[in-house]
Specification:
Elements: H1 5-10, H2 32-43, H3 54-74, H4 87-99, E1 107-111, H5 120-129, E2 132-136, H6 150-153, E3 158-161
Parallel strand pairs: 1-2, 1-3
Bound molecules: pyridoxal-5'-phosphate.
């Protein structure tokens, strides 16, 4: 079945303005169905997530539904989906938490192919703990991250490998 470009474009009102968008992550445009769902959620009474009262239950259901939808999209488990303010903010939170257990001599592996959101939090956590940062290089000719190099980069001292799937 051919990918119906016109139908997909039509789902995104902002694309009707005629701009060309090159940044698929930071410059994400929003589908009309999402705009409507967010507006609907914000029009309804919600509160802190709680089973004790209706607005709280609505908030619980909204978050559970969003996690289930993302898991469905990615073929993942809802319990493995974390929602937050941004990829960078979430990664900083995780890096601070994991980095608190690192010691000098520990190693973390980051890549030169990744967006800074998945590099700088780990580098700074390593600096704070005295861990060593090791870099995976990408092949400028292909734009790929050769997997073979990880055989050398990952050692018994490795505490974390950060690479975007
Ligand atoms: C490829 C890529 N990854 C990650 C990010 C970081 O995302 P966030 O703005 O949610 O921290 C961006 C932001 O533009 C991006 O373009």
């Amino acid at each position: 079945m051919a990918f119906d470009v016109a139908r997909v474009r039509a789902a995104y009102p902002a694309l009707g303005e005629g701009f060309v968008h090159f940044d698929g992550a930071g410059g994400t445009q929003t589908a009309a169905a999402v705009v409507e769902a967010v507006a609907g959620a914000m029009r309804a009474a919600t509160g802190n997530r709680s089973t004790a009262f209706l607005p709280g239950r609505r908030a619980l259901d909204l978050v559970a539904g969003a996690r289930a939808a993302v898991a469905d999209l990615l073929g993942a488990q809802p319990s493995g989906v974390v929602l937050g303010p941004s990829a960078t903010a979430l990664t900083y939170t995780l890096a601070r938490t994991l980095g608190a257990g690192w010691r000098p001599g520990d190693e973390v592996v980051v890549s030169r192919l990744d967006h800074d959101a998945n590099v700088r939090p780990w580098v700074q956590a390593a600096q704070s703990s005295g861990a060593t940062v090791r870099w995976a290089e990408f092949d400028p000719a292909t734009g790929e991250l050769p997997a073979g190099q990880y055989a050398d980069l990952v050692t018994e001292r490795t505490r974390l490998v950060a690479v975007t799937a």
